[in-house]
């Protein structure tokens, strides 16, 4: 990884963890997955927040997101995906190096998936009958 921060777990990833790579970003499986195939897309440069990435890094992350999805389709045949970035501590970011989650989803993996990402604010998530 470039521009390493020795305290950052994403700046010192072992090569064996990397599933896909390009000069600007890497794809790894999440060390603490919430679903089979839970994957992370991580820029190589140590940057805290998505909007601090330059446009080429953002494009690289989205390109690798699509490549990772192709592999997950073959391996896990999910029915859908949850894709997300916790950008900042107030948004739940715990590792200070931006990363994107790609979580394969299957029918029945939760009782009622309606609202999806809206459930990060549960008091405001119930807006349907």
Helix/strand structural class: alpha+beta
Residue fraction in strands: 15-25%
What's the assembly state of these chains? single chain
Shape: globular
What is the average per-residue confidence, as pLDDT, rounded to a whole number? 92
Query: In DSSP terms, counting alpha (H) and pi (I) runs of 4 or more, how many helices?
Result: 2
Largest sheet: 5 strands, antiparallel
Integer-rounded radius of gyration = 15 Å
The unreliable regions are none
The main sheet orders its strands as 1-2-3-5-4
Helix content range = 10-25%
Number of strands: 5
Distance between the termini: 48 Å
Order of helical and strand elements: EEEHEEH
Task: Looking at this protein, list some descriptive labels.
129 residues, globular, alpha+beta, single chain, 5 strands, 5-stranded antiparallel β-sheet
